[in-house]
Amino acid sequence: MTKQPDDWLDDVPDDENEDEDDEIIWVSKSEIKRDAEELKRLGMELMELGKNALDKIPLDEDLRAAIDLAQKIKKEGRRRQVQLIGKMMRSRDMDPIRVALDKLKNRHNQQVALFHKLEALRDRLVEEGDDAMSEVLRLYPDADRQQLRVLIRNAQKEKAANKPPKSYRQIFSYLRELAETQA
Prior knowledge:
Blueprint: H1 14-17, H2 29-48, H3 51-55, H4 61-72, H5 75-90, H6 95-128, H7 130-139, H8 145-160, H9 166-182
């Protein structure tokens, strides 16, 4: 029997007809090392966190125990423990851990920005007095105008007399309370 032109497909091996999904993805040795180093850096970040911050990150028991142990170890043992943590992290889904760590960092940055804003507002209150009071009342409608006036007047007197800035600190505390209750 002679072969028909369409029969040439029968001679092609099956593995060449399969989808490209079965292709082997080659990962270079350098890329594997970069990934391992990145996981070690992430492990170091986790080690630098306090107990309360670590409680907010979704870690399994083994990884948490390894991090707790690494926080207690010094010098060469710590380096080896970091290697172990990096190795343990390779077999876990790191996305939830990264998301939780980013949230923690972002919350810290937001808090620092809020503190700077409140400090600037406090400074304006002490310098300008009632002129800056309208901005505080606009930002925080629940603010007690009378209490703020007393604190501002006391802070101005303390500043003029070179006394410790007790009222100055109380203004900041009061503004922080207002910001926290509003949030």
